[in-house]
Design brief:
The protein is about 25% helix and about 25% strand. It is of the alpha/beta class. Strands 11, 12, 13, 14, 15, 21, 22, 23, 26, 29 and 30 form an eleven-stranded mixed sheet that branches. Strands 1-6-7-8-10-9-4-5 form an eight-stranded mixed sheet, sandwiched between helices. Strands 2-3-17-20-16 form a five-stranded mixed sheet, covered by helices on one side. Helix 1 runs antiparallel to helix 3 and helix 8 runs antiparallel to helix 9. It is globular. About 50% of the residues are buried.
């Protein structure tokens, strides 16, 4: 639809294309965006300029009286004066008003109609419009005709910079969210993921306010019972890989909510890492990157336009965005019943945590708030040993409330629906990184299968003396010695020292959250010699 009016938002441009079909947006991108190409598979290849990832240090939330008391202020949620928001908004609108053509996409976030919000994107790059076409839930024509006013308006000025001399700015990039106005203003970055995560941040505020748990996780469902399974995990833990399970239905790969009626995906698409992608490693994702999808910052062979998935010369963070229906076993609509199982994935490069443990409710809340994984040595200059990473609720950069709010909602849902919670280590066994070896994916898949089949509910366990959770000691297809990590180390004294060190890292990390949780949750802390917690 052309000549769509955006005057109510301060936009007065003659030509506004609203909800163009992907083929039209492809044409617009190739005609008007230098460097944009078609890959041999039919996917659109676009480039995000100097920013090839999110800019978390440039994210701001307007400090308004209505929401001020609800927000977890600090390094994640940095306060912005309302007047500065108005300055940045006007700067973005003024820039968009200089363009001959703008693109608008109206869609939905949340597959459950009871919790769904309406989102409008205004942008000057066709690449941004088709990206959000893939990532939001696409409306029918009837829904589009009766769309009305959006609950969230994203004004994306792309490369046009913020004025770094404006009070509160740390660079020429600024991502400013005004919760009361329902507006997100983007300046100085063309990275499309800022829009996706902006929507998620808004859902992370609105949903808990309504008693709905918003979650950074993937989700699958049993084909016969419709009971779901949630997989939480930071980057590199296997969340996307393990959710691509042909034996189950895919609900979504990244963002979900848990309401009184079950779970639902927030998004209408997937945004997968593309670095080193092969049809053998990720067949479902590989085939989904075709006409109608977007490949971001990948390198193309100039002769045949084949994607060089191993080439990281532009960025390691190459990405592919595609509608969820491009995944063959996706469940449409993307809703399912209450979870039978909740799985926390961690890549423990210290080689300490067991391949699978069953968590009590306090331990579940403790590990949910901790959100632990580890970086391996050698990934950064000067790093000679594993480095622990903690991200509360496995999604710290996108939380708005204090992490305890999400943990309490999780505990309530767990109790109501008798969900089992598991901690699965996809990291190292037989020693830390450099000595031991990475857990075989085939063994992790057998563990996940045993969780879903119910086998592990009957499996024997033994209490971990340091971490206090119940370690599963028998699982079909997994050697028993692998299941108890201390037994896989040549030197048990070295293992004990490593376990003690990791426990202290957990204890020290949790200090900043301890005042916001119950004594029962604080009691789920590891017990380590020499800790001060």
């Amino acid at each position: 639809m052309s000549n769509f009016s955006l005057v109510e938002h301060g936009i007065n441009v003659k030509t506004v294309y609203r909800n163009l079909a992907p083929c039209r947006l492809y044409e617009e991108a190739i005609l008007h965006e230098p460097g944009t190409r078609l890959a041999s598979t039919g996917a659109l290849v676009a480039y995000s300029g100097s920013k090839t990832g999110r800019s978390p240090k440039d994210k701001r939330i307007v400090k308004n009286p209505e929401s001020e008391g609800n927000i977890w202020w600090g390094s994640v949620n940095v306060a912005l004066d309302p007047n500065i928001f108005e300055i940045n908004r006007e700067r973005a609108v003024d820039y968009l008003n200089t363009r001959e053509t703008l693109y608008c996409f109206d869609g939905f976030a949340g597959w459950d109609p009871a919790s769904q919000i309406k989102v409008r994107i205004i942008c000057c790059r066709p690449y941004h419009a088709i990206f959000m076409h893939t990532m939001l839930i696409r409306p029918t024509q009837a829904q589009l005709d009766n769309f009305g006013n959006p609950d969230l308006l994203i004004i994306n000025a792309g490369r046009f910079p913020a004025n770094r001399h404006t009070p509160g700015m740390t660079s020429k990039t600024s991502i400013d969210l005004n919760l009361e106005r329902g507006e997100l203003v983007i300046l100085g970055t063309e990275y499309a993921g800022e829009m996706k995560k902006g929507v998620f941040t808004v859902m992370n505020y609105l949903m808990p306010k309504r008693g709905v748990l918003s979650m950074h996780c993937s989700a699958t469902a049993d084909k016969s019972s419709d009971r779901s399974s949630l997989l939480f995990g930071l980057s590199g833990t296997g969340k996307t890989t393990l959710s691509a399970d042909p034996k189950r239905l895919l609900i979504g790969d990244d963002e979900h909510c848990w309401s009184d009626t079950g779970i639902f995906n927030i998004e209408g698409g997937c945004y997968a890492k593309a670095i080193d992608l092969t049809p053998e490693s990720e067949p479902d994702i590989f085939q989904a990157l075709r006409f109608g999808s977007v490949l971001e910052n990948v390198v193309l062979d100039q002769e045949n336009r084949e994607v060089q998935f191993h080439d990281s010369s532009i960025t390691e963070n190459t990405r592919g965005a595609y509608p969820i229906e491009f995944i063959r076993n996706a469940k449409i609509p993307c809703v399912a019943g209450h979870p039978a199982d909740i799985i926390f994935l961690t890549c423990d490069a210290f080689g300490v945590l067991p391949p699978v443990s069953k968590l009590s409710a306090p331990h579940a809340m403790y590990h949910f708030i901790s959100g632990y994984t580890a970086k391996v040595a050698g990934t950064e200059v000067g790093v000679t040993e594993p480095s622990a990473t903690f991200s509360p609720c496995f999604g710290g950069p996108f939380l708005v409330w204090h992490p305890a709010k999400y943990a309490e909602l999780l505990a309530t849902r767990m109790r109501e629906h008798k969900a089992n919670v598991w901690l699965v280590n996809t990291g190292w066994t037989g020693g830390a990184y450099g000595t031991g070896s990475r857990m075989k994916l085939s063994l992790t898949r057998k563990i996940i299968d045993a969780i879903h089949s119910g086998e592990l509910l009957q499996a024997p366990t033994q209490r971990d003396p340091v971490f206090g959770f119940d370690v599963v000691s028998a699982c079909s297809g997994v050697p028993s010695e692998v299941l108890i990590p201390r037994n896989t180390w040549k030197d048990t004294a070295t293992y004990d020292a490593a376990a003690n060190r990791l426990a202290n890292l957990f204890i020290n990390n949790f200090k900043s959250y301890a005042d916001g949780v119950s004594a029962e949750v604080r009691g789920a802390s590891p017990v380590a010699v020499g800790s001060k917690g």
